[in-house]
Amino acid sequence: MIKLVVFDMAGTTVDEDNVVYKTVRMAINAAGHNYTQDQVQAAGAGKEKSQAIRDVLSIDGGAPSDEEVAAIFADFKGRLKKAYQDLDVKEQPGATELFAKLHQQGVKVVLNTGYDRATAESLVNKIGWKVGEQIDALVTASDVENGRPAPDMILRAMELTGVESAAAVAKVGDSAIDIEEGLSAGCGKTFGITTGAQTAEQIQQAGPTAILNHLHELSAAIA
């Protein structure tokens, strides 16, 4: 029986018009590169953002220096802060309704993300979600030692909600690395969703329990 659902944010429960990966691409290409948006999302989706930058820069088989990654990441953070000031952030359709339905069923709801805490909290605040109300906890890449696909964020979510068995946890995300994270944590179920960064075909490569097209499909899927 599922007692906890850990949801990714951007593309899964939060609709921010893909601004993060657009900004990742802008910062990388401003440093003299020429990657497409599809390349950025295929290599970087769901990851802690400095790792995403490193992996995009490694597409052609090279090994970017720590200095280059750090410089691009710093530029990215500045660009993203400016972009978020005027961004119309909204929830993915049906997210709040789904959270309420899960709570009625006795299921805990946690958001996790490859963002740092400041960025994640800014998104949550813009939507109006609060820990202790719509969600039970928020876990970010800056809260743990290892980002996805390591299980650290899911294990932290379990600690915060008192769920002891990973078999009672479902992970939902819009990229293959979300599924890999769920599998590495030993989650009972993992669900890809096609509302975000990657296609069903890309997500399927990680071997999820199922792929959803809309959040409202989840209630039946975890039953």
From TrEMBL:
It comes from the Bacteria. Signal peptide: none annotated. SUPFAM superfamilies: HAD-like. InterPro entries: HAD-like_hydrolase_sf (IPR050155), HAD-like_sf (IPR036412), HAD_sf (IPR023214), PGP-like_dom2 (IPR023198), PhnX-like (IPR022468). NCBIfam families: PhnX-like. This is Phosphonatase-like hydrolase. The lineage of its organism: Bacteria, Pseudomonadati, Planctomycetota, Planctomycetia, Pirellulales.
